[in-house]
Amino acid sequence: MKKLVSSRTLAGIATAALIALAPAGARAQDFINVLTGGTSGVYYPLGVALSKIYGDKIKNVRPTVQATKASVENLQLLQQAKGEIAFTLGDSLAAAWKGDEEAGFKTPLKKLRGVTAIYPNFIQIVASKDSGIKTLADLKGKRLSVGAPKSGTELNARAVLAAAGMSYKDLSKVEYLPFAESVELMKNRQLDATLQSAGLGVASLRDLATSVEIVVVEVPAAAVEKAGAPFVQATIPANTYTGQTVAVPAAAVMNYLVTHEGMKEETVYEMTKSIYENLGDLGAAHAAARSIKLEGALEGMPIPLHPGAARYFKEKGLKVGS
Questions:
Q1: Do 109 and 88 contact (CB within 8 A), yes or no?
Q2: Confidence band for 5, pLDDT divided at 50, 70 and 90
């Protein structure tokens, strides 16, 4: 009996030793936490779809989805390895890499690594028809929601207003609210307009347009040019929202999926591969994802690619920088 107990004890010690010696990263990366945005935006439904893809297509992973304040918070969480992949706007990503304190980054976030460009965000300024707002200049003296404080949307708001020769001081009231809350205030006539940086057809603005007569405000080409990179000229097609019968010139900025340097190459390779092998599922989750194309995967990437993503794109024949 004594010998048998001793054998079991030794076996237990051996098992514990094997677990202890296993690389910590290998165990941690069984979890893929997808950092998104508010539940009424585009990032969240796409994050849910991405999580399902990862769960179905990648062995031995446990994906989760986390609703956040979007770009700035996501990048800060990645820097702390409190997430494995995140959605972000391109200007926020560039600011994080540089350490732009005005944008919410006290120090450069040098642990960030790129996965892929995805789709453009349209800077969509929508006013109630009753407000009388028809142009950017008409926002002066009005009540505007600009997104959560120092979110990607709010950074876009500052840039677009500055390009039009305005600042928050020119508005009668500035609200720093996520998309859904902004819409509720507009329905209650407590706001005149909302600026939302999102994919076309974002749920919050669709909801607003079915409840209130709206005007989609033009961002003229001259303002986009003055704002400069990473902003580009774009068009919001007619009938994107109820009551919007004409196409409207706008500004856009690219969105990205980002990870951190602590992620294993093989894991990020599989994550990147499963995105491009399941674009139909992402497109079904939100129309914005239908513009994701392999040939545009590296467009404007402002930070170094993760080796796992670089490996996948090289296999697909894309030119990946050193």
A1: no
A2: very low
Residue written as token pair 């677990």: 19
Rounded CA-CA distance 140/120 in Å is 27
Neighbours of 237 (CB within 10 A): 11
Q: How confident is the model at residue 179 (pLDDT cuts 50, 70, 90)?
A: very high
What is the identity of the amino acid at 148?
Answer: A
End-to-end CA distance of the chain: 63
Cβ atoms within 10 Å of 315's Cβ, excluding its own: 10
Contact 96, 288 (CB under 8 A): no
Burial 128-165 (b: 16+ CB within 10 A, else e): beebebeebebbeebbbbbbbebbbbbbbbbbbbebbe
Per-residue pLDDT tens over the stretch 78-109: 999 999 999 999 999 999 999 999 888 999 99
C-alpha separations of 281 from 49, 50, 52, 285, 316 in Å: 7, 8, 9, 6, 20
DSSP helix/strand/coil, 232: strand
Residue with tokens 């929202």: 241
Of all helices (H) and strands (E), which one includes residue 297? none
Full-model pTM: 0.77
Single-letter code of the amino acid located at 26: A
Residues, the chain: 322
To 10 degrees, the CA torsion angle through 40, 282, 255, 142? Answer: -30
- In Å, the largest CA–CA distance within the chain is 90
Asked if 313 contacts 298 with a C-beta cutoff of 8 angstroms, the reply is: yes
Which residues pair with residue 194 across a beta bridge? Answer: 126, 145
